[in-house]
Amino acid sequence: MSPATIAAVVLDGSGRPVPDVAVAVVAAPGPVQDVAALTGADGRAVLSVPGPGRYAVLATAADARTARASVQVDAPGTQVELHLADPEVTGRTRQSSRPIT
Amino acid sequence: MRFTIQVDEQVAAEAAGAASALPTSSADFDAGPAAESGPGQAGPQASSDGHTPVSSPGAGGGAADEDESSAPPSPGPGESGAADGGVEQVEGYELPAQESAATVAFSVDETLPDIATASFGAREAFTTEAVIGIDDRVQITTTATYPWSAHASLRITANDGSQWIGTGWFIGPRTLVTAGHVVFIRNSGVPGRDGWVRSITVVPGRNGAQQPFGSAVSSNLRSVTGWTLNGDQEYDYGAIILSSDLGSSTGWLGFGAFSDATLLDSVANISGYPGDKPAGTQWYHARRVTSVGPRKVYYDVDTFGGQSGSAVYRIVNGQRYAVAVHAYGGSTSNSGTRITSPVFQNLQSWKA
After folding, report:
1. B141-175 residues labelled b (16+ CB within 10 A) or e (exposed)
2. B147 preceded by cis ω (within 30°)?
C-alpha cells in the first residue's frame, strides 16, 4: 500500500483548537506504527497511515476528555475533525431497563 | 492497537487484505539452539542484510566499546515487587489462566459510536474492529523503582516540528533502545518530516508530572539501513544515546536472542507510555507470545499509540530480558522487532 495521511484537528466544545492532545490510530485495516502525535497550537496533527482503508482515530487530552472518529481514507490528506467530550457512560438501569441518558 | 483485538479470521482477512503482514509460522523457521542470552550463543540467525548500523548527523561520540560478554540487566533503585511466573507482580494485574483466541470473548463493534465527526467517509459499520471487553492494563505508580525506572517516556520532535510520543528503555548508562520509526521517520507523506528526527526528550520513570530522574534531550540516534533505507518493518529498531549517564540511576534491562521454542513458551511483558491514558503515565500488561517469525514476535499484549519502542521482555529467574522491540499494533495481534543475533550485536555495539 502507498502511504496516506489523516489530518486531524482537535476542538473543544466551543470549537477552539486544543493543543498537546495525543492522537493515534485505534483501528486500521492492517498493522500501524504504535506512536501517537501531539496536536500543535492549532489543534492539528497529521498521522501517516499505510494506505487507503477505513481507520478509527482517538484523541486523548491531558484532562481525560476524548474524541473518536471513523474515517475512510481514499486519498492523501484525508481530514477528520475531533470534538472533545467527557467520557461517555452508557448502559441500562437495573430496575427500569431504561437507557441511561 | 488499540487493545489487543481478536477478530473472526474471515473478517480479519477481509479487513487486512493482501498487504497484511501476518505472522510467519514458527515452522517456517529453523531455530538454532536455545540461547537464553549472550552474543556467543546461537539464537535465531537472520541475514545481516539490513542490519548495517547507521547514525544520525547529530551523533557525536558514538557508543561505547562492545561488551561481548553478555547483556545482563542492571537493577536500579529499590526493586518494586518480585517477578514470578514470567510476569511482574503488580497489584491489580493477573495473567489469565487460559489464553487462546478461541477462549477469549470478543465483540465486533459494528456501530462505532463516534463522539466526533469525520469530514470524510460515511459513518457506516466498521467491520474491522473487534475489541476485547476488559481493559486490564495496570498503571504503574512506583516508577522511581526498578524495573519501571528503566522505561522512559519519549517526546519526539520530527523534522517538520511535529511532536510525537513513544517509549524507550535503557540497556546501559547512556543508551536506550526504541523503535526505528521513533528515531527515523520514513515515507510519512508529509513534506519535511522524513529522516532523522530533530530531537528526543527522554524522561525515565515518568509518572505524569513527576520526573524522578529528570530528563535529557538527545539527537544522537542509531538505526539500521533495513529501516532507514528500505523501511522494512522487520528492521524497525533503533537507539538513543544520551550525553549523561541517567541509566546508572534508573538501571537497565537485559536483552537476548532466543529460540522459537523459548519465545513461544514465554510471557511477553510490556510497560510503556500509551497515549490513551493520562499524559506521561506508565502502564503495564502481559500476555503469552502468540507466534514468532524470523524477525518478528507477535503477542496479544494490549498496547496503544505511544508505546512504540517499548521493551517486550521475558522474566527469567527474576531477571528481565528483552526479546523484541514493540513497534506495531494490528487488528489481530501486536508485534515487535525480534532481537535476533544481528540485532543483538548492534544493540551491544550501541550500548554506552
Report:
1. ebbbbbbbbbbbbbbbbbbbebbbbbbbbbbbbbb
2. yes
Angle at B154 between CA B81 and CA B269, to 5 degrees: 35
Give me the residue from B118, B182, B233 closest to A80, CB to CB: B118
Judge whether B68 and B344 are in contact, CB under 8 Å.
Answer: no
Q: Which one of B51, B151, B153, B181 is the catalytic residue?
A: B181
Which pLDDT tens digit goes with each residue over A42-58?
999 999 999 999 999 99
Inter-chain residue contact B279 with A46, CB threshold 8 Å: no
Contact B188 A48 (CB under 8 A): yes
Told to judge if B215 belongs to the known catalytic residues of this protein, a careful annotator would answer no
Q: Can you tell me the ipTM of this complex?
A: 0.86
**Cell (9 digits) for B347:** 544493540
Stated pTM of the model: 0.79
Supply the DSSP string of B140-187, one letter for each residue.
E--TTSTTGGGEEEEEEE-TTS-EEEEEEEESSSSEEEE-HHHHEE-S
pLDDT in tens, B238-253: 999 999 999 999 999 9
Q: Which CATH architecture has domain B24-90+139-350?
A: Beta Barrel (2.40)
Which region, left, alpha or beta, applies to residue B318 given φ > 0 means left and ψ of -120 to 50 means alpha?
Answer: left
Q: Which of B308, B331, B333, B341 is catalytic?
A: B308
Q: Where are the domains of chain B?
A: 24-90+139-350
What 3-state class would DSSP assign to A49?
Answer: strand
- Per CATH, the number for A4-83 is 2.60.40.1120
Mutation site, B223, B276, B291, B334, interface A, largest A CB count within 10 A: B276
Task: Indicate the residue of B156, B190, B305 with minimum beta-carbon distance to A5.
Answer: B190
| Cross-chain CB nearest to A45 (options B117, B118, B162) | B162
